Inverse folding.
């Protein structure tokens, strides 16, 4: 490879690897218009199965599931339990419908999340409470402390 080709290659790579390369692309009005069109067409979607965020805690008496749903009303949330699987379903509507979205990081739209609980729970005595955007669901644990003998026939 001669020196002239090497110098041209170097200039080309510096142009494309320079710090301003990506900022030039994303500050371009055509790129911004295209990204805006994609957001309008396909909406702002969270990765499937990751929304809403969930924390699970447990102690000797119960399992506590905490679901973060800021801006949501409790009437817009449905819960169901099948064995050790909790399903959370809802639809989050945009709050400011009379405005054009400039930057949207919050999730809007229908969602469904299924979470596997650490163990099968007692379906009697389940309590759900919604306060300040946090949904807390308490599941009584099945007491298995006492040893049970199994009769052999």
């Amino acid at each position: 490879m001669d020196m002239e080709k090497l110098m041209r290659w170097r200039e080309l790579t510096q142009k494309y690897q320079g710090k301003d390369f990506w900022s030039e692309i994303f500050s371009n009005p055509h790129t911004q218009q295209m990204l805006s069109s994609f957001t309008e067409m396909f909406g702002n979607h969270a990765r499937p199965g990751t929304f809403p965020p969930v924390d699970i805690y447990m102690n000797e008496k119960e399992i506590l599931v905490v679901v973060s749903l800021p801006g949501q009303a409790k009437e817009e949330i449905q819960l169901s339990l099948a064995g050790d699987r909790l399903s959370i379903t809802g639809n989050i509507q945009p709050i400011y419908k009379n405005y054009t979205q400039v930057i949207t990081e919050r999730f809007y739209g229908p969602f469904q999340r299924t979470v596997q609980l650490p163990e099968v729970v007692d379906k009697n005595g389940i309590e759900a409470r919604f306060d300040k955007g946090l949904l807390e669901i308490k599941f009584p644990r099945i007491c298995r402390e006492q040893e049970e003998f199994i009769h052999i026939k």
The longest strand covers residues 85-92. Residues 3-42 form one domain.
